[in-house]
Amino acid sequence: MKTILPLLILLIPAIACQKSVTQSVSEPGELTFVESYPNLEFRRPVDFQSPKDGTNRVFVVEQKGVISVFENNKDISERSTFLDIQSAVDDSGNEEGLLGLAFHPNFTTNGYFYVNYTSANNETIVSRFQISKNDPNKADTQSEQIILRFNQPYSNHNGGQVCFGPDGYLYISTGDGGSGGDPQGNGQNLSTLLGAILRIDVDKSQGNLKYGIPADNPFLNVSNARPEIYAYGLRNPWRISFDSENGMLWAADVGQNAFEEVDIIVKGGNYGWNDMEGLHSYKSGSNSSNYLPPVLEIAQSTGDKSITGGFVYRGTKAPSLIGKYVFADYVSGRIYALAKSTDGSYQNETLFDTKLNIAAFGEDEDHELYFCAFDGKVYHFEE
Questions:
Q1: Model confidence over 283-338: pLDDT tens digits?
Q2: What integer pLDDT is reported at residue 175 of this predicted model?
Q3: Nearest to residue 44, comparing CAs of 20, 60, 21?
Q4: Span 42-306 CATH architecture
Q5: Using CA atoms, how far apart are residues 32 and 319, in angstroms rounded to an integer?
Q6: What SS3 class is residue 340?
Q7: Measured CA distances, 217 to 190, 197, 225, 272 (Å)
Q8: Is the bond preceding 290 in cis, omega lying within 30 degrees of 0?
Q9: β pairing state of 259-265 and 249-253
Q10: What is the 3-state secondary structure (H, E, C) of 277-320?
Q11: How many C-beta atoms lie closer than 10 Å to residue 212's C-beta?
Q12: What are the two backbone dihedrals, phi and then psi, of residue 10, each rounded to the nearest 5 degrees?
């Protein structure tokens, strides 16, 4: 069995002792990465978000159940606790905890934001909170409204990303339920919310639901299928993101024991797990033509054993990355850039071999790209 986010319990002591990486001074035009906030440190940061509300604030999510907010300034030395829900979050499993944060597209007017966390009852919970009426840097902890909840049969493969698409709907990544090899067959089961990308309308309610089902969701009128499903056949999509320029949805799916993969997610797509792992059959007799292939697979024999999804870069500080999908591997610490060639194929290049355990990427309001590592630091790219 291979797990994601922090992969193996045996890795934790090494992570705790990992030293911060300091980049040497680079020549003009040379791509590098640097510590974004040298005076701040975080415990197991798993998400980095900006409300894109013109305030130049950024938010860092710690797996234990805390969200910090501070000015996006390299000299910042203090942070505020925006939300603390440690009492509700179970992070005893190495892949459980507070895993995702998303700000409503109308955050500036309604103050709504959404989180994804695992509870002590072995559930994934997607909740809505609202900011305090008296302090924009504080959440109203009494405002929680649980939007969606579902059981997790095991403690690993929880996915955990929440993000709003250009259509205004909330997308949620879920893992296959955990253990190893998808023993319950959730990846190919449309009657469960596991092993999928979900899409819901948080601005409506429908029947007994605290959300609506978009009218064009692909399985809305399919018998015995959950209408929330947008795409499926995924093992543990650890980080999904939209390209801010063209709206394309990218996902990094952690492999079982042979291949990591990058997928472009389309409505109704079936990405093959657990019949397929990457471009290869996982089950004997599987037919790859029944599934959408990844745009990239990486063999675990290279040392990459737990992919961390990133973003298509649309900032200005690192022009050589523009239009490339930048991602990493949690185990090897390598950072990659995937670019589409003129012939339509995708070519992957290694940017850095950091030796860091990189758990998440994020954008600020200028679309500059950051990444969170388990040395407790946040980094960004410059050129």
A1: 988 899 999 999 999 999 999 999 999 999 999 999 999 999 999 999 999 999 99
A2: 97
A3: 60
A4: 6 Propeller (2.120)
A5: 12
A6: strand
A7: 13, 11, 11, 19
A8: no
A9: antiparallel
A10: ECCEECCCCCCHHHCCCCCEEEEHHHCCCCEEEEEECCCCCCHH
A11: 16
A12: -65, -20
